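Many introductory courses stop at the sequence. We go one step further.
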Amino acid sequence: MSGALQLTGLTRLHGTVPALADLTLAVPAGSCVAVLGPSGSGKSTVLRLTAGLDAPTSGSVHLDGRDLAGVVPERRGMAMVFQRPLLFPHLSVRDNVGFADRVRGVPRRRARERAEHYLDLVQLAGYGGRPARALSGGQEQRVALARALAAEPAVLLLDEPFSALDTALRAEMHELVAGLRQRVDTTVLLVTHDPAEADVLADTVAVLDHGRLQQHGPLRELYAAPRSLAVSRLLGGRTEVPGTVSGGRHSSALGVLSLPTPTPDGAGVLVVRPEAVTVTAPGDPGADVRGTVVRVRRRGLRALVTVEVTGPGGTTTVDGELAPGEELPVGAPVGLRLPLADRCVVPPAGDAVPPAGVPVPPSDDGQG
């Protein structure tokens, strides 16, 4: 049965350095929330505090309203899948999966029957009698996932379990976990550094940077309206144009551009995702700015171009994507369209971001 997880004011200090600072995050029963961030951002600390492997300096972890302070990991109703499978090499696949049942005193035959059920869920039916050391990396992680599910946790904790797999195997595991969520009633808290993985698996995403929650909401919302440079950069944003906001317009080296939503006056950095920028002919009357291509990078069938723009406010660059098959040489003059809806202004680096622990309300369209 799934449980509702509530993290409130979680802080973990290493000496005087905060690995995690005042994190407040709700994970509703049956949902999947991804904690996304670069290395050293505090992601794994969140899982370790939730699982009871470490104690917080301050703050609390509640599961279905029950305060878990002082509760040992094995009695928290949680199971974790780590980056490494950590299987018992001397046991069969079946007995690895049935280990939690055996610890609880379930008879061997019943534990093995249940293990076969969970092996079938992770698409490893028929593998039960094999030694764990005879499996491939992807198969080992499937067994680790089956072992965690066999414990029937209220909360399943995933600590970047697919990061060591190649691209094809990661995609298979993502599809598997997405399917399992429809068949197994559990709450999932996932840690990842991969926005694509968060997009596939999670209902909402919480972005951490330097131990602080930057933003929480559906990933599409974070893409469209990041609240800090850290969020924009982590999600692949490249264009950052410093300037000043006044009366709903942003003034910078790109000129004066209207903004789609009310924005406080003052210093602000305009961010626009490269896939939102349309590269057009230099004479395009609908172009918002004009410039010169200074760099071209291939991305499969597409190409990412960097355009240098010089205006009254100075010189800056804007990144955009070419359509599949389209080519442009360095030095080519171009126009750029920056759709109004895709313009977003965030505070300059080092300025205050919204308080940690305050989530962005989910959008009403139910997408995520």
